[in-house]
UniProtKB/TrEMBL annotation:
This protein's name: diguanylate cyclase
Residues in HAMP domain copies: 68-120
Domain GGDEF as annotated: residue spans: 152-282
Keyword annotations of the record: Membrane, Transmembrane, Transmembrane helix
Gene Ontology CC annotations of this record: plasma membrane
Enzyme Commission number: 2.7.7.65
SMART domains: GGDEF (SM00267)
Pfam entry (one): GGDEF
Annotated InterPro entries: Diguanylate_Cyclase, GGDEF_dom, HAMP_dom, Nucleotide_cyclase, Rev_trsase/Diguanyl_cyclase
Residue ranges of the TM segments: 45-67
Enzyme class: transferase
GO annotation terms (biological process): cell adhesion involved in single-species biofilm formation; negative regulation of bacterial-type flagellum-dependent cell motility; signal transduction
GO MF annotations, alphabetized: diguanylate cyclase activity
Length: 289
């Protein structure tokens, strides 16, 4: 047992041992007083002392059990506060009772819930695009980096809305914002559930299709292109908004290099007349002709 010096006295460093020491001394005072009185009288009643000793030991055992029961919630509080400091979720469980320890546990739960809510808000703000609700560039990298590191393969596309600046200039930024929101929703709706979609910046979007061949991803994006031509995005009165996309095989190299290849395919699609999904292999085939 480690001891600490306080005011000239040695006391245990552990709170549990401090309380036990107080209880131990308190429960032994009657026994020691009785034994001292008997010794002064010169007639020691060993039977009575034995009874008192057994009763004292039973009381000491009960005190130990009670101390453990009382301090267990404090240990939960300490672990809860440590989890809060690490940004981990805390779930101490329902707490009932009007005593101070129950109040402490309730406060720890409240603090944990408040911190978790704030961290979630900050994480959402750091990784989500406020206009569309999609992942932003940082959030996209956070999602796909582990998948690229695992080399699970797939297809990667960069999509760019055609002549979007003209929409802002002619119809105003609120109309342009509505186009972006609607397009984001349509993109999410047409892609498979495991597709990771993000707003890359401005009118550019990206989509990573894990474990998906380029042909299947191309079909998905072509379906989206036909859909927004038939049912335009944005507020009523706008001309149909199209997009161009560059699509490449992904997973065998870093995401940054994959994005560069997709960007090159995107600009080739723009040069070829816009409103199309250009697959990198087709671009390579054209270059070889």
């Amino acid at each position: 047992m480690r001891l600490a010096s306080t005011g000239g006295f040695l006391v245990p460093q552990s709170l549990r041992m401090r309380i036990f020491a107080i209880c131990f001394i308190g429960t032994h005072i009657p026994l020691l007083s009785f034994a001292a009185r008997e010794a002064l009288r010169g007639q020691v009643a060993w039977g009575d002392i034995g009874i008192l000793l057994v009763a004292t030991l039973i009381g000491t055992a009960g005190a130990l059990y009670g101390i453990h029961a009382l301090l267990s919630p404090l240990k939960l509080s300490i672990e809860g506060v440590a989890s809060i400091g690490r940004g981990e979720p805390v779930a101490i469980g329902p707490v009932a009772g009007p005593d101070e320890i129950s109040e402490l546990l309730r406060r720890v739960n409240e603090a944990a819930a408040s911190v978790h809510s704030r961290l979630s808000t900050l994480d959402h703000a750091a990784h989500r695009d406020p206009l569309t609700g999609l992942l932003n560039r940082r959030g996209f990298f956070a999602e796909v980096d582990p998948l690229f590191a695992a080399r699970i393969g797939g297809a990667f596309a960069i999509l760019d809305l055609d002549r979007f600046k003209a929409i802002n200039d002619r119809f105003g930024h609120p109309a342009g914002d509505q186009v972006l929101r609607d397009f984001a929703n349509r993109l999410i709706a047409v892609c498979p559930r495991d597709t990771i979609v993000a707003r890359w910046g401005g009118e550019e979007f990206v989509a990573y299709f894990p474990r998906t061949e380029e042909g299947a991803a191309q079909t998905t994006l072509a379906t989206l292109l036909i859909g927004i031509e038939e049912v335009p995005v944005g507020p009523p009165g706008l001309p149909p908004v199209t997009f161009s996309a560059g699509l490449v095989e992904a997973g065998s190299e870093p995401i940054e290099r994959t994005a560069e290849r997709a960007d090159a395919a995107l600009y080739a699609a723009k040069r070829a007349g816009r409103a199309q999904v250009l697959v990198e292999r087709d671009l390579v085939a054209r270059a070889g002709e």
